[in-house]
Every structure is written in C-alpha cells, then in structure tokens.
Specification:
It contains 20 helices and 2 strands. The protein is mainly α and 436 residues long. It has one domain: Growth Hormone, Chain: A (Up-down Bundle). The termini are far apart. One of its GO terms (molecular function) is transmembrane transporter activity. Keywords: Membrane, Transmembrane, Transmembrane helix. InterPro entries: MFS (IPR011701), MFS_dom (IPR020846), MFS_trans_sf (IPR036259), Proton-linked_MCT (IPR050327).
Length: 436
C-alpha cells in the first residue's frame, strides 16, 4: 500500500490519496455501481410499481380511491424524510452501510407483502407507507451516498446509472401486475422475496471508502482545474445548518417540491385515468413507458449534465414534463393510444430525470464536504411534493375532474422550469455566471 496523504486543490477541496479501490474493496470500484444499481432496481418497485396496483386496490371492498393514493403520499413522506437522517447517522458512524441496507431489505419486503395481503387501509398505511417507505429511503440514501463517495471524479454518470435503476427496475412488475390482476398476492410475495434477497446480498458487499477518498487517477489537483469536469465549482463548502440559511436553497427546494408533485401525480393517477378510457393494457403500457423513460433518461442526463450545464438540462426537462401533462390528458380523453404512450414517455424524460440533476447541483452549489447530507435536506422536498401532487390533486380530481388535475400539474411543471432559470450559485454574482 502506498503512503496515504491528504491534498487540497485551489477550491479548498480535500483529497485522500494513496489507497486503491482494490486495496479497500478487494475488487474494482465499478462493483459499487452495479451493487447500488441492483439495490435501487429492487427498491424502486414500491414507488414506480404502485401506480399499476391502484385500480385493483381501489376496487377492494371498503377501500376508496382517495385512501389508496394517499398511502403513496405517506410512503413518499417516509421515503424522502429518511435521506437526511440516514446520511447524518452514517457520517457519524452510527449507521454503517451494511446495517442500513439490511434494515432496508426487511422493511421493503414487509411493505410489498402488506400490499398483497392487507385487509384494511390502516394496515396498508402502517406496512407499506411507513415501513416500506422507511426501508426504501434507507436503501436510496445509502446507494446515492455510495456512488458519491466512490466516484468523486465521475459523479454525474454514476449517479445517473444508479438513480435510473430506481425507475426502470419496476417495468416488468408493472407489466405483470396489469396482466395478472387476480394473482396480485402471489406476485407481490414473489417480488418481496426477490427484493429481500437482492438487498441482503448488496448489504453484505457494499462498503464506503474513507472520507475524502480519491482514486489513483486522475491526479486530483489537475482534475480540479479541468473545466470539462468543473464548469462552476462551489465557492465554499456549506454544512447543512448553513445550507438552510442560504437563499438559493429555498429556490432549489421549491423546484424539487414542484417536480416531485408532478411526477408523483402521474404515478398515482395515470393508470386509473388511462384505464377508465382506454383499458388496463394501454394504461399499463403508458405507466411502464414512464418508468422506462425515467430510468434511461436519468442515465442520459447524467452524461449530458457536465457538458451542457445542469441548469439548462433541468429547465428543458421541466418544460418537457409540463407539456407531457397536456398531452396525456388530451390523448386519454380522445383515446389516442400513440399520444398516451408519447405523453408517458415525455413525462418520464421530463420530471422523472430531475433527481439525477439534483445530486450534481448540490455539489456544484454547496460543495463536497457535506454533499450527502445536503442532498438529503433538499431531497426531503419530495415529501412536500407528495402532499401537493397526491393530496391536493385528490381534491382537484373530485371537484374539477382530471382536466383540472392534469392542467394544474402542467402549470406546476412549467412554473418549476421558470423558477429553475433563477437559480444562482451561492456567493457568485449572477452577472458573472457563464451561460448555462
């Protein structure tokens, strides 16, 4: 093993050099990407697969459509709210990655089994929403933190792969849930078993490197000066308490709230809306395309972000997500199959891709020192988005029908696009920022 040293670059960032990934892991760090992607693929079924279950769950005697979709809102609250505490505990070595993943494995499996066998909505809220949401949050926070730690030189690309898996892993489940509605308990039991095994295996193998670890190549101080990878490095490093006092944080938080509201609205309501007009098959296809486009789009966005600038990509994605809402409603009302599928794809490429950009924006705006915790703070905005996109949307659907709900979702996404254009890097005058 080479001598372990700590270096600093011109931006004050620290790098721990001298230890290779093979020395620390016993294998190349690429393993971490695939372990994290496999875990996210398994955990994401609870979010992206839930929409396919909504029509069948709503027909359960004594259950209501509003109650069923509200369980997704509570799930999102628990899932998003776990990100910061999990990162905070991990930084203090109180919740190691294997323990977080193992707990997530059990809780995620419990959430899926609950959906298959619950006899009351209260059981769904306790088992799926709370336990399943907490489990998915633990897995999500641990996996995102792992790629941030192991790939400080390639964060955008690896985050795109891992967060993309959270979406497209549910595509087979959506297809099976739509095609085999009577087999829902068996399908969910089998899915829970697969999720438990996959996450437990990842828990046994996933590890974090030492704080500020840097790979053997590229040389960190040379890399820091390469504008292809550091277009707008943060001017200073913000701790979570400082983050909350920063004006940029509020604007970015609101963007995440609006983005999450629209995405969760589509996941909760699209299948029911489309099934009532074009049949369950087309509804499942639209939902599956939304998940597939979200996953593949996140990979693409991760690769484009460093080249074209995250703010520019974010605005384009949010504009696409806003347009998608009007396409979905028009196509559903007029039973236009091609339009409905196109709208689902556009929705996935739009609002579904923004979480990948959030990871990069947090590092670009607020620095590296507390990137995982700062991401957790801003990711918690998804909980507020769930209240808007699912809770308030239920009131709009009841009073104004789906036209009002899809129109409101489209306006929210377009408003987020406008707001994202006003994001500025903390400490740098807006007039000095390069065009992005």
């Amino acid at each position: 093993m080479s001598e372990v040293r700590e270096l600093r670059d011109v931006y004050g960032r620290r790098y721990r050099v001298g230890e290779s990934d093979r020395e620390l892991l016993g294998r190349p760090r690429a393993w971490v990407t695939w372990l994290a992607a496999a875990a996210m693929l398994a955990a994401g079924v609870q979010q992206y697969g839930f929409g396919a279950l909504v029509p069948a769950l709503s027909r359960t005697p004594g259950w209501t459509f509003g109650g069923v979709v509200l369980s997704l809102a509570v799930w999102a609250l628990c899932q998003a709210g776990t990100a910061f505490p999990a990162a905070w505990l991990r930084e203090r070595r109180l919740l190691p990655a294997p323990a977080a993943m193992a707990a997530g494995a059990v809780l995620c499996a419990a959430g899926l089994v609950t959906l298959g066998h619950a006899s009351s909505l209260l059981t769904v809220f306790l088992g799926y929403s709370v336990l399943g949401g907490l489990g998915t949050g633990l897995v999500y926070a641990t996996c995102v933190g792992a790629v941030l730690a192991w790939f400080p030189d390639r964060t955008a690309a690896t985050t795109g792969i891992v967060s993309g898996a959270f979406a497209y892993g549910s595509v087979p489940f959506v297809v099976l849930a739509a095609g085999l509605p009577a087999a829902r308990p068996v399908l969910l039991d089998v899915t829970a078993a697969v999720v438990l095994v996959v996450l437990a295996a990842c828990a046994a193998l996933l590890r974090y490197p030492p704080r500020h670890w840097w790979p053997a190549t590229p040389e960190p101080r040379t890399w820091a000066l390469d504008k292809a990878h550091n277009r707008r490095p943060a001017l200073r490093h913000y701790r979570p308490a400082e983050l909350l006092r920063c004006r940029t944080t509020l604007a970015l938080y609101l963007v995440v709230v609006l983005t999450a509201a629209v995405l969760l609205f589509d996941l909760a309501y699209l299948a029911t809306f489309a099934a009532g007009r074009s049949g369950p098959g087309l509804a499942a296809a639209a939902l599956a395309l939304l998940a597939a486009a979200t996953g593949s789009g996140r990979v693409l966005v991760g690769r484009l972000a460093d080249r074209l600038g995250r703010p520019r990509i974010l605005r384009s994605a949010l504009l696409a997500g806003g347009v998608a809402q009007f396409v979905l409603f028009f196509s559903g009302e007029h039973r236009q199959a091609v339009g409905l599928l196109l709208g689902g794809t556009l929705a996935g490429l739009g609002n579904g891709c923004c979480y990948t950009l959030l990871v990069g924006l947090v590092r670009e705006y607020f620095g590296e020192e507390s990137a995982a915790q700062n991401f957790g703070v801003l990711y918690s905005a998804k909980a507020a988005g769930a209240a808007v996109g699912i809770g308030l949307a239920a009131l709009v659907v009841t009073s104004h029908g789906f036209l009002g709900a899809f129109a409101a979702a489209g306006v929210l996404s377009l408003a987020a696009a406008v707001l994202s254009g006003r994001l500025t890097q903390p400490g740098r005058p807006e007039s000095l920022l390069p065009a992005a």
